[in-house]
Amino acid sequence: MKKLVLASFATLLLVIGSLLGAVVPGNAAPTPAITAGQILVKFRDNAAAAGALRSHGLTDGPDVGSTGAHLITVPAGKELQLVEALSRNPVVEYAEPDYVVTPASDDTYFPRQYALQNTGQSFTNTDGTVTVPAGRADADVDAVEAWTVTTGTGIKVAVLDSGVALDNPDITPKVVARVNYTTSRSNDDNYGHGTHVAGIVAATANNGIGVAGVCPGCSILAGKILSDTGAGSSSGLANGINWAVKNGAQVINMSLAVGASTTLETAVNNAWNAGVVMVAAAGNGGNTSMNYPGAYPNVIAVGATDNNDTKASFSTYGAWVDVAAPGVSVYSTFPNHKFVLAREYNRSQGYDIGSGTSMASPIVAAVAALARSTNPGGTPSDIRAKVESSTDAVGAIGTDWAHGRVNACRVVGATGC
């Protein structure tokens, strides 16, 4: 029976030596996104509207409800320029961008979730012992923009890991089924890894606490494959895959690694053929060695980037790795009780940062879930192609990974990406 090894928390030391720099507030409001190709204009005299617009090569547009404003089509990229010009015209009462509407997240640690929305913020971990220096604005997966189209409601994502905590209010209510394929007596998460992974996928957004998942409308199938000491078996993982399929999973995340197994590959292929998108961590070896199940053809293998869109030093890489996602200092949920990783890596109960391709993989799984929600009839090949073709060209394409860093906004066809 082969033993599984974690693909992330073995390197959860977060490369602390590189995380130096001054702390600055991480909750400054980002510049609002605007809808491309249109603006809002209200005229003092509608009879003069045509002339005012004609001078800029524009034509009048439809009313916006009973507001008196008109929705005007403009050349993409010229929105702010035309707003400024029209605002100076005396027949115009006001002109303004047509701002992108996004969920107003009031989650406590959302400003530290650069993977979802990177404004170049610096932040600390929960107890202030680690400072993450400012990153590069927009080095993120554009999750907030994607939410204007879908939050993934109705999509089930199976997290095959160390279980999901029974006591974290941000992720526990999202779990719709549990199973335990380990020797541990409980299907609770006493290790910590699975709760962190699940929160990255589907933590409840805009509930005034904690964090938001990349797919906050998704629900979780919690398959406990790793025991309370972080070990498991290939047979347990295969059983977990089969259980997830039977319980309606549309996406399965596997933030773990194991040796090549014919039984496991068969389970992977059966799930794929049943319509389930399979996602796994590439590993944290900092080399090109293939890890399974990520290296199986019917699994999307995920490498890790940081908040500057740079390949993480620990990330396994190579042309066999399909895509990348943020995997350094990713904020998410932890158990609210004592758990093993809290002792080993000085993590706080409830919420804290974690690093590894184990953190990058659930981001990709969540992006695949968002893609699935906009294409419910799509095959796993369709969803995979959409995820891979909508990436941002980050890293050395073909050397670090085959495609790029995932972009949730593009995958669902939202504007303002």
UniProtKB/TrEMBL annotation:
Give EC number(s), comma-separated.
3.4.21.66
Q: Which residues form the Peptidase S8/S53 domain?
A: 152-393
Gene Ontology biological process terms from the UniProt entry: proteolysis
Entry-linked Gene3D superfamilies: Peptidase S8/S53 domain
| An annotated Gene Ontology molecular function | serine-type endopeptidase activity
Does the keyword Signal belong to this entry? yes
- The UniProt entry annotates the active site at 161, 193, 358
Which residues are in the Fervidolysin-like N-terminal prodomain domain?
35-97
Q: Which domain of life is it from?
A: Bacteria
Q: Kindly give the Pfam families that the UniProt entry links to this protein.
A: Fervidolysin_NPro-like (PF22148), Peptidase_S8 (PF00082)
Q: Which keywords annotate this record?
A: Hydrolase, Protease, Serine protease, Signal
Q: Give the residue range of the signal peptide.
A: 1-28
Family note: Belongs to the peptidase S8 family.
What's the protein here called? Thermitase
Q: Which organism is it from?
A: Pseudarthrobacter niigatensis
User: Which classification does the entry list for the species?
Assistant: Bacteria, Bacillati, Actinomycetota, Actinomycetes, Micrococcales
